[in-house]
Amino acid sequence: MRKNMAKIVNKYPVGIQTFEDIREKGYLYIDKTKYIVDFREKGMKYVFLSRPRRFGKSLFASTLQAYFEGRKELFEGLAIADYEKDWVKHPVFHFDLSGAKHMSIEQLERYLADMLEEQETI
Fold it and tell me: In this protein, which residues make up the domain named AAA-ATPase-like (predicted)?
């Protein structure tokens, strides 16, 4: 029993926040991909994720990114695989605003312009 528990604990993704890393490295993943299907079927144009710190917001955003990039291989065996037939690839822009804390309006505008410029080169 202890040996099995050690295997489970070793596969718990402490500090890993990307869907790709969790899936490719075989870490424990609680399947929340049905929410993506629900959002799509309800025609939700905007989704506001309001959760406390460490509640998986970044992981879910990473999951959405993989979905919209058409990364079908990452979703094998998950709920969404039963619903999605056409894995269409869409351009995805990822903006990390954690570095924008306590900036003036001018600094924030420059920061966003730099991030957009960086995305243009990709």
Answer: 13-120
